[in-house]
């Protein structure tokens, strides 16, 4: 991974023009270094990221538009425009767009670890089958939790 460089990543574009489809959501990488990784995310109505754990990263989400329901360490929360969601390392969390409105937000993790490579892997799958996404994620330090019984 190359060192961070100064500059501006313009609106509506990502690093090197990259845009990923991740589980029906659009992720656009905005910043990448060994120490941190940031991406703009668009989450259409009804999409979600199932409960999972980042054992090696702190994760943050700054809400730009919409309403996000989340479960953090077994507790329910709601975030909207202007809110910052803090997801500590090792703490289970799931993210849900239960509204009829699209969510736009900025995610970032520190340190980057293997997340950038995971997003390339998921985006490159012909079909993003849940079991394949879960298996690939485990190899990239993201542990999805089993569904509640």
Give a verbal description of the structure.
By secondary structure, the chain is mainly beta. It has a single domain (18-143), classed as Jelly Rolls, CATH 2.60.120. The chain has 2 helices and 11 strands. The chain has a 6-stranded antiparallel beta sheet, covered by helices on one side. A 5-stranded antiparallel beta sheet has the order 7-6-9-4-11, covered by helices on one side. The longest helix has 10 residues, at 115-124. The model has no long low-confidence stretch (mean pLDDT 95).
Brief description of this entry?
The protein has 149 residues and is mainly beta. The chain is built from two helices and eleven strands; from the N terminus they run E-E-E-E-E-E-E-E-E-E-H-H-E.
Q: What keywords describe this structure?
A:
mainly beta; Jelly Rolls; 149 residues; 11 strands
Strand and helix layout:
Elements (H helix, E strand, L loop, with lengths): L19 E3 L2 E8 L4 E7 L4 E6 L4 E8 L1 E6 L2 E6 L3 E4 L5 E4 L6 E8 L4 H10 L5 H10 L3 E2 L5
Antiparallel strand pairs: 1-2, 2-3, 3-10, 4-9, 4-11, 5-8, 5-10, 6-7, 6-9
Under CATH, the homologous superfamily reads Jelly Rolls
Structural class: mainly beta
**CATH structural architecture:** Sandwich
Low-confidence stretches: none
Radius of gyration: 15 Å
Q: Mean pLDDT, as a whole number?
A: 95
Q: What would the CATH topology be?
A: Jelly Rolls
Distinct helical segment count:
2
- Strand percentage lies at 35-45%
CATH class: Mainly Beta
What helical percentage do the residues reach?
Answer: 10-25%
Report strand order across the widest sheet.
1-2-3-10-5-8
The quaternary state of the protein chains shown equals single chain
- What's the helix-strand series? EEEEEEEEEEHHE
Strand tally is 11
- Globular, elongated, flat, extended or rod-shaped: what is the shape? globular
**How would a crystallographer describe the biggest sheet?**
6 strands, antiparallel
Query: What is the end-to-end distance?
Result: 41 Å
């Amino acid at each position: 991974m190359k060192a961070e460089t100064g500059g501006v990543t313009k609106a509506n574009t990502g690093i090197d023009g990259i845009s990923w489809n991740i589980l029906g959501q659009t992720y656009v990488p905005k910043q990448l270094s060994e120490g941190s990784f940031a991406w703009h995310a668009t989450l259409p109505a009804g999409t979600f990221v199932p409960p999972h754990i980042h054992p090696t990263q702190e994760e943050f989400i700054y809400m730009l538009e919409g309403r996000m329901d989340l479960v953090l360490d077994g507790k329910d929360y709601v975030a909207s425009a202007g809110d910052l969601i803090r997801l500590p390392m090792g703490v289970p969390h799931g993210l849900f767009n239960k509204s009829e409105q699209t969510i736009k937000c900025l995610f970032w993790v520190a340190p980057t670890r293997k997340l950038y490579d995971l997003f390339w892997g998921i985006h490159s799958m012909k079909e993003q089958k849940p079991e394949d996404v879960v298996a690939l994620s485990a190899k990239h330090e993201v542990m999805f939790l089993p569904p509640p019984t």
